[in-house]
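Example (one chain per record):
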Amino acid sequence: MVIQSAKAQTQAVPYVDVGLCQGCVKCEARAVCRSKALIQLDPGEPPFVDASRCYGCDLCVTACPFGAIRLNRN
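Predicted structure:
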C-alpha cells in the first residue's frame, strides 16, 4: 500500500503575476493561505509563492481580487 501526501499530489504551484499584483497591504490571498506559502518580504511589494510550502489547494488563486495569482500549467 502506497500512501501519498497532499504535497506529493500537487500538480502545479501557483505564481504571482507581478504585472497584475497591486502589492496590497492586506493581501486577501495571503490571508487564505493555510500553509503560509505566499510570502511578502516588504509592504507594497508583490508576494511570491514558496513552492516548498505550497499544498496546491489553489485558494489563493480565487482569493486575489486582481487575478494576479495564476497556475502555471504546462
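Caption: Residues 41 and 47 are 7 Å apart (CA to CA).
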